[in-house]
Every structure is written in structure tokens, then in C-alpha cells.
Amino acid sequence: MDDRAKSTIVKTASAIILAGGRSSRMGQPKATLRLGGRALIERTIAELARAFDDIVVVTAPESEAIELPAVGAATIVHDDTAYQGPVGALARGLRAARHELAFACSCDLPMLRSEVASWLASLADGFDAAIPQVGGRLQLLHAVYRRRCAVALDAMLASGERRLSAIAEEGNSGISSGILIRIVTEAEYRGADPEALSCFNLNTPADYARALKLTDKE
User: Fold this and answer.
1) Helix 86-96 to helix 149-158 angle, to the nearest 10 degrees?
2) Are 11 and 100 in contact (CB under 8 A)?
3) What are the residue ranges of helices labelled H in 97-163?
């Protein structure tokens, strides 16, 4: 880790990477896609390590988990049940994180920038979550959450709600009672990430092809 990276580390927040999805549209595990000579999960961990001193990777149960490459000092935790969506996985990650506050992301963000993640963490002061809205959609897995959000996530699962977006829906105020969320507007977000590439995620082979072209320019 270089001196510049050390000087920017956020020592009051963790980073959580969710890597237990089915990747059905991609047709292969996203975490192990190769970009710039490394698996995507390695690339993501290395980038986040520039800004966070605690990294948690949440993956499928051991019997279902893909074989991950070396993940350095990251902590790996496993879901209880495979492919149940991000709600339970995020709750598990928040409980495993060393810090109360955590930047949470999916494992399929090839252009993720640590400075954008740490900037989002800075916006959570006085809030339980800071979630950007880009392209008319909440970027729920490129956002910041406090550990107390795990209680609301548990309540969502208990009610049968598996959509992570429900934590930010007014109609679910009973489920997420007491959770104070800051929605980061697109204009505000693009001030830090003008092309919104940090939250560009891979869903299909076409997305992967685009990511390969983008990384060729690095």
C-alpha cells in the first residue's frame, strides 16, 4: 500500500463486499471475472483497501461458495442460505464489520473508486445510511449503512421482504422504524463521480465487454 493510500484511510468505517449472488444473467461468477490481470474481487478489495482499514466479504454458504482467489486481510463470512438476496447478506456483513459505519457494495463494480466510497461515508454523519440516486435508481449496493440498519434488515426478512430497496421506501416505515436515510441526489453524486462509473455494475456479458474496454484505458 503506497503512502498516498495510507494517508486517506478511513479508520472509522468498514467496507463490505457482497459476493454471494447467483450471477444468472452473466452466466459465470462475477467475482472471478478477470479485469486488468486480476479477478474482479481482488481488484475490488485492493481498491477499497486504499480507503478502509477493515474489509468484509460476504459470500454464499461454504457448501455453495465459489472458490475465491487470495483476499488478503479481508474477513470472509458466509450466508446461512444460498442465493437469498442482499438483505440478509448485508445484515450479516454489518454485524461482522469492525466499525459501526460501513460502505457496502456488490462484487461487480469494475470501476469502483475508493475516494467516492470514502466520500459517501463522510455524508452519513447524523444518518443511518447514505444512498446515492443515479439514473433515477437508488444505488443500494454502492451506499453507506450503520450497523443498526441490520435490525431493520432482519425485520424485512421476517416479514418476507427480500427487496433491499424496501429499507428506503416510505411505505415500509414500520419495518425500518427509526432508520434515518440520506438520499444523495444525482447532481451531488456526480460532483464526486462525474461519469458515475464508480457505480457501474456488471449484469451481462455486454457489461463485461464494456468494462474490459474501460480498463484498457487505465
Assistant:
1) 150
2) no
3) 114-122, 149-158
- Rounded mean pLDDT, 9-16: 86
Cell 449484469 sits at which residue? 203
Please state the φ and ψ torsions of residue 83, each to the nearest 5 degrees: 55, 45
Closest CA to 109 of 145, 59, 143: 143
Type of residue found at 189: Y
Nearest to 181 by CA among 117, 138, 136: 138
Domain ranges in the chain are: 3-216
C-alpha cell at 70: 487470495
CATH classification (class only), 3-216: alpha beta
Give the per-residue pLDDT at 164: 94
Please give the Cα distance from 26 to 15 (Å, whole number): 24
Question: At which residue does the C-alpha cell 426478512 appear?
Answer: 157
Residues 9 and 217: their CA atoms lie apart, in Å, by 26
Cα-trace Rg, the chain: 16
Q: Return d(Cα 199, Cα 144) in angstroms, integer.
A: 13
Q: For residues 39 and 88, what is the distance between their CA atoms, to the nearest angstrom?
A: 25
For residue range 94-110, list pLDDT tens digits in order: 999 999 999 999 999 99
Grid coordinates 478511513 are at which residue?
Answer: 10
DSSP category for residue 185: P
What gap in Å lies between CA 206 and CA 100, rounded to an integer? 37
